[in-house]
């Protein structure tokens, strides 16, 4: 066996990956070794601390960086060196926070990072903060790599956020104090607890503490603002108002283009606000020039629209879409404008899993009464999701518009979440497996079946959705389908890495490429990339050795 193949085999062994998977070509073995080296080194490259100069440097903002502490927390000793050596100001938030939205981005000037006690792993590129749902997939990768202490520290950072910032935040920035992200906290807790237990360290004291914070996170989603009408389900809801800072700064021209889209629609849009003067608009306004086409002859058919902006309801939907993590897609109406009107499949599947996780943790802690209560809550949610969000004719789960009392028809990859959490019935699981072809492409699962020009729709695929779908299919016995999707995504990531030496945030699963061109929103394809790294390791570890052919045989 060649030296490169031996090194790669040893590397796989260190990750718990079967040595039998290394019987492929020497060239592919070298490529596998190279990408695993890249992932291994990335954990330190992507690690940050708000007690270090690199951690508080703010690539998203100009001027002196500001690090904010909770209003009632004394400046920790670890920050004294920061103050002396870094170009950073340390300030306190204006109020003690008990829930999301109590302090908004408008209350904190200038915007800045929020202090966290422990080091954490960022996604990559321009991201210098710890994100909510990204962190679950990053933690899966860290645990696969044996970095249990770093993973546990990240989970404890979320406890700190709940205690001092009112919720698991979108990320630790001052302008994210009004929203959370999809609830993966209980999944993170169980992953870390079981990893430590496997190493001979079962920490029930830590687990009891973790239960307390997971319960608080769950209750945040049960509050009236997060309730999806009378459905008994929950919705995404950002407590802030108006345009988000990232929409104004990170996504050049985004709101102008959204406004132009709605202005072109026939009839009056509820997402437009017009006024006699620019000063009369509540939010930033724009001057639009709409033409029937782009030809010179069409100039006489152009209409100049002045003093028009986007409505409060649009901005609420836009903000809530960002809490969903799927920013941007047309799943909840164009540009996510109606997000807060829906009971989503993804959110309510994750809340079901939270209920099941807290049932399990209650049993581990010996609290049988609490376990029974969690079981009852989970059964109730399962029944609602199985009936209200299921379309038997199409064989898919859909989001439910509780304002219009109507099931969405937008086919979206979150239809596979009920498989991952164990909520789907066997018949529903069979239908979902049979409908994989609606989303499946040569590079894995596309996010939707509609091409809208934004990053969370067709033809783009993202690592976390591949993992959730694959693990969900496996849990219902659909192993060939799970193996096939794993191989499609892994091969695409590996082929692109072999070409340019990087792992990316997202991929075009139709063209099998990391080279993408987006019409709106975040147009970059960020290098790193935390959750792609973690998912690559997990999908690779889940492949059965020696039983795959075709393109997937290249991975063995």
Description:
The protein is mainly α and 556 residues long. Among the domains are: 55-199, no CATH class; 250-327, no CATH class. 43% of the residues lie in helices and 9% in strands. It is built from 18 helices and 17 strands. The chain has helices at residues 3-14, 26-45, 53-56, 78-85, 134-144, 148-165, 185-198, 204-222, 245-249, 254-264, 312-324, 345-364, 368-388, 417-421, 426-434, 463-475, 479-500, 530-542; strands spanning 47-48, 65-69, 88-92, 113-114, 120-121, 272-274, 285-290, 303-310, 342-343, 390-391, 396-397, 400-401, 406-407, 440-441, 444-445, 460-461, 507-508. The strands form 7 sheets. The chain has a 3-stranded parallel sheet, with helices on one face. Strand 2, helix 4 and strand 3 form a beta-alpha-beta unit. Helix 2 packs across helix 18 (530-542). The longest helix is centred in the last third of the chain and has 22 residues, at 479-500. The chain is globular and about 75 Å long. Mean pLDDT is 90; it is low at 1-23.
């Amino acid at each position: 066996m060649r030296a490169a193949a031996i090194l790669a085999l040893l590397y796989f062994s260190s990750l718990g990956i079967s040595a039998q998977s290394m019987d492929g070509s020497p060239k592919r073995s070298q490529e596998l070794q190279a990408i695993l080296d890249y992932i291994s080194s990335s954990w330190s490259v992507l690690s940050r601390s708000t007690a270090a100069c690199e951690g508080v440097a703010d690539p998203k903002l100009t001027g002196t960086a500001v690090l904010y502490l909770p209003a009632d927390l004394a400046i920790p000793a670890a920050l004294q060196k920061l103050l002396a050596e870094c170009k950073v100001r340390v300030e306190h938030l204006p109020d003690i926070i008990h829930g999301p939205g109590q302090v908004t981005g408008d209350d904190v000037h200038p915007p800045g990072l929020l202090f966290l006690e422990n080091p954490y792993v960022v996604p990559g590129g321009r991201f210098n903060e710890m994100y909510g749902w990204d962190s679950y997939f990053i933690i899966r990768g860290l645990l696969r790599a044996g970095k249990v202490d770093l993973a546990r520290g990240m989970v404890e950072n979320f406890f700190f956020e709940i205690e001092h910032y009112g919720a698991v935040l979108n990320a630790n920035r001052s302008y994210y104090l009004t929203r959370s992200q999809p609830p993966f906290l209980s999944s993170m807790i169980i992953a870390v607890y079981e990893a430590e237990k496997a190493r001979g360290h079962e920490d029930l004291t830590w687990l009891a503490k973790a239960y307390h914070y997971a319960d608080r996170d769950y209750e945040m989603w049960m509050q009236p603002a997060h309730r999806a009408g009378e459905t008994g389900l929950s919705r995404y809801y950002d407590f802030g108002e108006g345009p988000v800072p990232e929409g104004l700064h990170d996504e050049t021209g985004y709101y102008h283009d959204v406004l132009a889209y709605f202005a072109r629609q026939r009839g009056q849009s509820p997402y437009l606000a017009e006024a006699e003067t620019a000063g009369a608009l509540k939010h930033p306004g724009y001057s639009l020039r709409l033409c029937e086409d782009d030809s010179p002859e069409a100039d006489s058919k152009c209409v100049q629209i002045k003093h028009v902006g986007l409505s409060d309801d649009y901005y609420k939907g836009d903000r809530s879409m960002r809490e969903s993590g799927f920013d941007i897609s047309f799943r909840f109406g164009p540009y996510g404008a109606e997000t807060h009107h829906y009971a989503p499949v993804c959110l309510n599947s994750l809340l079901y899993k939270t209920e099941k996780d807290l049932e399990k943790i209650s049993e581990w802690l010996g609290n049988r009464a609490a376990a029974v209560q969690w079981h009852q809550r989970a059964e109730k949610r399962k029944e609602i999701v199985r009936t209200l969000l299921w379309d038997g004719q199409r064989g898919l789960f859909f989001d439910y518009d509780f304002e219009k009392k109507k099931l969405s028809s937008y086919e979206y990859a979150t239809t596979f979440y009920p498989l991952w959490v164990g909520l789907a019935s066997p018949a529903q699981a069979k239908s979902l497996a049979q409908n994989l072809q609606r989303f499946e492409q040569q590079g894995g699962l596309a996010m939707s079946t509609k091409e809208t020009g934004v990053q969370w729709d067709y033809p783009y695929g993202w690592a976390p959705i591949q993992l959730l779908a694959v693990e969900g299919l496996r849990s219902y016995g659909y192993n060939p389908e799970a193996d096939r999707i794993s191989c499609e995504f892994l091969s695409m990531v590996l082929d692109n890495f072999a070409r340019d030496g990087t792992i990316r945030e997202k991929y075009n699963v139709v063209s099998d490429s990391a080279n993408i061109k987006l019409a709106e929103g975040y147009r970059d394809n960020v290098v790193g990339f935390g959750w792609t790294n973690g998912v690559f390791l997990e999908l690779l570890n889940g492949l059965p050795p020696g039983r795959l052919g075709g393109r997937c045989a290249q991975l063995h």
